[in-house]
Amino acid sequence: MNFNKCVRCGAFFINNSNVCPNCETKDKNDISNLQNFLIENNMPNSIDELSISTGIATKNLNRFLSEKRIEQIEKL
Ligand SMILES: [Zn+2]
Prior knowledge:
The longest helix has 20 residues, at 21-40. The chain has three helices and two strands; from the N terminus they run ββααα. A hairpin with a 6-residue loop joins strand 1 and strand 2. The protein is mainly α. The termini are far apart. It is elongated, with a radius of gyration of 13 Å. Strands 1-2 form a two-stranded antiparallel ribbon. The chain has one domain. The chain binds zinc ion. Zinc ion is lined by residues 6, 8-9, 11, 19-20, 22-23.
């Protein structure tokens, strides 16, 4: 049995994701906010600007980017 440490809140949990079930929901909300933002706006020049515009922490934006969960961000 493998315990993973949630990258968002630091809680330990059991499954193959990077985040605990609570934060999985938050991730989905962040991603849908981000996608809505990108539909209506051009991609900002930096992750910092994107973070300010969307209210999503840069740490989480970078994670979505590295996990390739946001298609538009891959063009950055
Ligand atoms: Zn968590």
